[in-house]
Design a protein that fits this description.
This protein is mostly helical. The chain contains 7 helices and no strands. It folds into 2 domains: 136 residues, no CATH class; 42 residues. Helix 2 runs antiparallel to helix 3. The longest helix is centred in the middle third of the chain and has 44 residues.
């Protein structure tokens, strides 16, 4: 007798999370903040898994944690949707294409790295990634910068990063403490 495999709602959701982050991992060139607009579009606009404000918070936390922002965001989104199983499938989904692509490209790159067409392609990819990062900053800033105090915090954080990029934890901590102070004293 044939056995029928049934997929319940929870397993279907996990499969959907895996597929979404597999796709994001497959098309996200530049990594890091270049992935932010793609992640936000997928989880807010297309899947409607989280609200825009929640997505901005997830990206903010993902960016302040050690490790890759895309992977951190995948873990946080997966957890917010389906708990620990959601975290695991989002991470595996996000990492799988990277691992496969990097292994394949490393073999090809060894053979074709001096090819002028390959060099020209990379010369075009670099500025496109900068554009994606600028767009991520713009969309995140629209939601995160709610008043003049937030604008000042953002400017100081930017200037501090330009002068001392090694102190990112201190800059994030200072921003958090400033936010708490301003909220408590309603400055």
């Amino acid at each position: 007798m044939k056995q029928v495999i049934r997929i319940d709602k929870k397993n279907f959701l996990l499969l959907e999370i895996f597929a979404a982050f597999f796709k994001l991992g497959s098309i996200s060139f530049g990594g890091g903040y270049a992935m932010v607009p793609l992640i936000e579009n997928e989880i807010v606009e297309k899947k409607k898994w989280v609200a825009h404000e929640t997505a901005v918070d997830i990206i903010a936390v993902a960016g302040s944690l050690p490790g890759a922002i895309g992977l951190n965001a995948a873990a946080l989104v997966g957890y917010s949707i389906a708990g620990i199983p959601g975290t695991l499938v989002a991470i595996v989904g996000n990492l799988s294409p990277c691992v496969l692509i990097v292994l394949s490209l490393s073999v090809l790159f060894q053979q074709f790295s001096t090819n002028p067409v390959v060099q020209a392609a990379f010369n075009g990819i670099r500025p496109a990634v900068i554009g994606l990062i600028a767009y991520a900053a713009y969309t995140t800033g629209k939601t995160s910068i709610q008043n003049n105090a937030c604008s000042v915090i953002a400017i100081f954080a930017f200037c501090a990063m330009m002068m001392a990029p090694m102190y990112i934890v201190l800059i994030i901590t200072a921003g958090a403490l400033t936010g708490i102070f301003l909220d408590k004293y309603k400055c």
